[in-house]
Amino acid sequence: MNKKKLVFSGVQPTGNLHLGNYLGALKNFVSLQKEMNCIYCVVDLHAITTFQNPNQLRNNVLETVASFVATGLNPSKSIIFNQSAVSGHTELAWILNCISRIGWLNRMTQFKDKAGSDKEKASVGLYIYPNLMAADILLYKATHVPVGADQKQHLELSRDIAQKFNNDFNCKDFFPLPEPLIPKNVSRVMSLRDGNKKMSKSEESDYSRINLKDSADEINKKIKKAKSDSDQIPDNLKDLEKKPEALNLVNIYSEISKSTLEKVLNEMSGKEYSFLKKKLAELLINEIEPVGKEIKKLLGDKSHLESILKKGKEKANIIAEENLKNIREKVGLI
Ligand code: TRP
Asked: Is 10 a pocket residue for ligand 1 (Cβ < 6 Å)?
């Protein structure tokens, strides 16, 4: 039972996706699409756990879809849709709210980080966010979930919820326990200004990140200005790891050039960082600029993007309704 592999992942509609999203998530989604059935969901209901300007939210959802397609996701192969369009997500989330334990949620480190010092003022939605994420995954009985390292704890919670449901309702193997697929090297692309911070769209300086829509000129400037190190490139990882900004640049270079860190160090040790930066900028422009152009082109035809979402929603809804029927029955809902 449930032997079939199914990939599910969710991406927040932040708009303006960057190199971190690209290397850490999107590229991985595209390669998974070649081997397995995949469902990729733009999680607008997760986004509203903190206030979103409605017009901006709509635009961001479409821009996220455009970024999916521009990086190579194929809407006739993978299911691409937005979370709020399939009402099963919220229905299952409610049921799972009753399975999940307060003690489990209290351990979630992301809530603590996001709620900050004044937890009393955080929305209830932000607190139960991980239960909705479990619902996203379990609604489709997904078996594999590509996520960044920061989502590992949420995925463990999803497994705990699945297991408790299977136990409580005496239906062993009803929900498969979803496995995380965490990219090894690049689960963390760091800020170009501070190698200890993740690359993020919320960092103030635009020089901290490469946006997918950046022009060749912008990419060039940002890499040139990126923090590195005044010493030469070392010949071993141990020394490199002492310099987080330098490590980040080598890391990105190795990922984009499909080479290992060791090989890059072999090739570059003893050289100045400016040498690495020049090559890195060339590779990035080659890879990112066409993606950015495609995103802009796709954004010019909103109705096309909406029709991708609509088709995806229809396909997702069929699976969701079928599974929900069985879930309602297990729980005893008439
Ligand atoms: N919480 C995830 C993030 O911020 C997004 C997400 C929502 C997700 N639902 C999901 C990821 C289900 C994987 C599976 O990155």
From this structure: yes
